[in-house]
Every structure is written in C-alpha cells, then in structure tokens.
Amino acid sequence: GQGSTMPENCIMQQLLQLKDVHEQDIRVAGCDLLNASLETISAFLTRVLHRLGQEPRVQNNLWRELDAALGDPTQRLTWKALNDVPYLKATGKEAYRILSIIPSLLRVTPKTLNLQGYEIPAYTPILAQTYAECLREENFTRPLEFLPERFLNPKDLSKEQLEYYESQVGDLDALHQETRASRRLYQIFSTGARACVGRRIAESEIYVFLAK
C-alpha cells in the first residue's frame, strides 16, 4: 500500500502492485503461503537436522564445500552462489527422497480410464505412494543410506571432486544415472498444475538454513 517500507524485491510488494487483483485476495494468499511454509519447512528441517547429526561424513563434505565456495561464513548465500555448492543442493534432494514429510500424492481421475489393465471409474481418488517407492532398492541403490552423492552429476565436478566423492561411495556415474531414471519419485512439492506455488521460496529457505 501507500507509504510501504517493504523493499522493491519483496514478493508481497510486487503482488500488491497488481491492478487487476483485489488487495484482500493478495493478503489472504500471502498468509496461506506463509502458514503452509512454516508448518512444512519446520517439520522437514527438524528431520533433516536429526539425520545429519547421524551423518558426520555428510557434515564434513558440506563444510568443505561451503568453506571453499563462500569462505567468509557471514557471506550471503545467493541463487548465483548455489551454482558453486552442488553438494549442498544434493543434500537437500537426498533429504527430499529419504526424509519426505509428504508420503503420497493424491489425484482424482477426471474420467474413467484404463491403467495397466485395471478400469478406474471417474472421480476415483488415487494415492501414489511416492515415499515408499523412494525406499525400494529397485529404484535406488542402498535406499536407506543417506547419500547426497547420488544427486551429483559427474560432468559438473572437477577431477579432484569426482575422485574425492567416488572414494566414499563408489561409481558416481552409475549412481547418478540410476537416480535420474527415478527422479519422478521424489515429489515433496507435488507435480503438475497442483504443485506447490512456493517451491522456490521453500528451497531457498532450506538451502540457506543448511548452509548456516
């Protein structure tokens, strides 16, 4: 509104400047976004911190990468800087896979359809058990182990980095190719038209929190 002290790059400030949307609708949408993120992100990060406390190897790798990329611990972690910390992003993705707070995705069939020989009537609720699939060895090697390396692309690593990570987990290329083939299974933010609209905000919060 008038006389706002919000910075120009504030999401709410940008939304409030839209002329075709009622201000009350924007405020309600903003509250929904905030409340949803507080509940889900706090629960997710609690699980992540608990697991990282049991993974000193991963902690050490995160520290090495962040120290090399940022140096100064007070430096802000920007989206540009995220390109220099692939292990941090991989840790987040591995947490989505093995520590998901969203065990399944719900969809309703808009019409009668045939799925692998089964006739599904229209308006039938269907639950995709994505979390269970993420813990099956048919989809992920050593599924119960916390291995951020499975989300690292060997092509994006230096020779030294590749050798360092392979000394810990083995053939990184094979691990990465398997993960790419199963990437649709870890859908903590859902997918399609009903996917989480605050995904990028949530991801930035998670990465910054882990880096700190």
TrEMBL record:
Domain of life of the source: Eukaryota
Listed InterPro entries: CYP11_CYP27_families, Cyt_P450, Cyt_P450_CS, Cyt_P450_E_grp-I, Cyt_P450_sf
Pfam families: p450
Record keywords, A-Z: Heme, Iron, Metal-binding, Monooxygenase, Oxidoreductase
A Gene Ontology molecular function term of the record: oxidoreductase activity, acting on paired donors, with incorporation or reduction of molecular oxygen
Signal peptide start-end: none
SUPFAM superfamilies the record matches: Cytochrome P450
Key word Zinc present: no
Cofactor(s), by name: heme
Binding-site residues, heme: C196
Isomerase in keyword set: no
Record-stated family: Belongs to the cytochrome P450 family.
Full protein name: Cytochrome P450
Annotated source species: Meganyctiphanes norvegica
